[in-house]
Amino acid sequence: MGLPRTATTFAPPVMEARRWLDGVTHPADRPLLNVSQAAPVDAPPQPMLEAMAQIVLTDPAAHLYGPVLGLPDLREAVADRWSRDYGGTVSPAQVAITSGCNQAFAAAIATLCAEGDEVILPVPYYFNHAMWLDMSGVVTVPLQTGDGLIPDARDAAALITERTRAIVLVSPNNPGGVEYPAATLAAFRDLCHAQGVALIVDETYRDFDARTGAAHDLFIDPDWDDTLIQLYSFSKAYRLTGHRVGAITAAPARLAEVEKFLDTVAICPNQLGQRAALWGMRNLDQWLAGERAEILDRRAVIQDQFAPLAAQGWKILGCGAYFAYLQHPFDLPSDQVAQRLVAGAGILCLPGTMFRPKADTAGQRELRIAFANIDRAGIAELFTRLAAYTP
Length: 391
Fold this sequence. Notes:
Elements: H1 13-19, E1 33-34, H2 46-58, H3 72-86, E2 95-98, H4 101-112, E3 118-123, H5 127-135, E4 139-144, H6 153-157, E5 164-170, H7 182-195, E6 198-202, E7 228-233, H8 235-238, E8 246-249, H9 252-265, H10 271-283, H11 285-304, H12 307-311, E9 315-320, E10 323-327, H13 334-345, E11 347-348, E12 350-351, E13 366-370, H14 376-388
Parallel strand pairs: 1-11, 3-4, 3-5, 5-6, 6-7
Antiparallel strand pairs: 2-8, 7-8, 9-10, 10-13, 12-13
Helix pairs in contact: 2-10, 3-10, 4-5, 4-9
C-alpha cells in the first residue's frame, strides 16, 4: 500500500519554524525579530479598507459564488496592465484569477503533469513548489545555480528527459531575492519552446523589482502562450494575504483545464479579495510605488551595512524583493543555527535546508532573512544581534 499524498512531503516550513518559539520568552529589551515569513503583516492602506467596507455593505455579489476563472473586470485589468508593462499582448481570455499564487501553481501543475512526470526547479527553491510536486506524484529535478543564484538554461537542457513537463523560475526569487536577467528568461523560453515543455514564471514579487521598465520580453512574442505560464500574487502588492487572490496567465485552452481544478477545489476565488485587488489596480499605483521604494531602501541598507558581518565570515548570496539569502560562518548545519538563534539572539528565520532537497548539503550553510516587516532600525538591530551571536 502506498503512502497518502500528504505523507510524501515535509511539514510546512513556516509552521515548523513557529513551533520553535514554544516555551521561549523574549526580554522586553530584546523582543523577537521575526524574519521568517515573506508576507506583510500590516493591514491594507486605509483607503482600500474603506473601499472594502463599502463593497461588503453595498455589493450583494461580493457574498455569492462567482465565475470560476475570476471576476471579468479583474481579468481585464490584469490583461491590460500586463500588456502595457511588458509591451506585448495579453487578453482577458488568457488570465484567470486564483485563490492565491500557490493555488495558481497547483492548478498549472495539475494541467501539465501525470504521476511520475518531472519538473525542473532551480535550487534553492520555494518550498511550497516542491511540496506540491511531492503530493502530486511529480519528481522534482533540482537545477543547481552558481554564483549569484542565477540558473543557466544550458545546465537545464542537460536535465530534460522524456518525462520533463515544465521548468519553474521565480523572479524576483524566493528565497534568494535575485532578479533574473531578461536574457536568462529568454534563454529558458527558447529552451522550453524547442523541447516542448512549459516555462512557468512565478512573478509574485514583480512589484518590488529594482529595475525600471519591463523585467523581460516574454510577452512580446505573439505566440507566447505556447510555452509561457505566468503566475502572480496580489497579496504582496496590496497586503491582501488573508484574502487569497492570485492570477495565472496562460493559453485559453490551458485555462479551460485550470477551470476544472479550481471548480473542484475552491469553486471561485474570494469575492471580496478580488474586488479589493481590482480597486487597488485602479487607485493605488502611487501608493504601491511608495511601498516599492521602501523595500528597495531596505535592500540598500542590507547591502550597505553588511561589512561588519562580512568581516566575521558571513556572505550575501542574494538580496532583493523581500529577501536576503545569507551564508553563515558557523560549524553547524543551518537548521540547528536557525533554531538556536530563537533563544540565543531573539531572531526567527528559516534555514537553507528548507529550500533544498535533503541530499543537497549547500543548504546547511544558508539562512533566509525576510525583511518585509523590519525597517532600517530593525535591520540594524538584526545585524547587531547576528554579529554578537555565537552558537
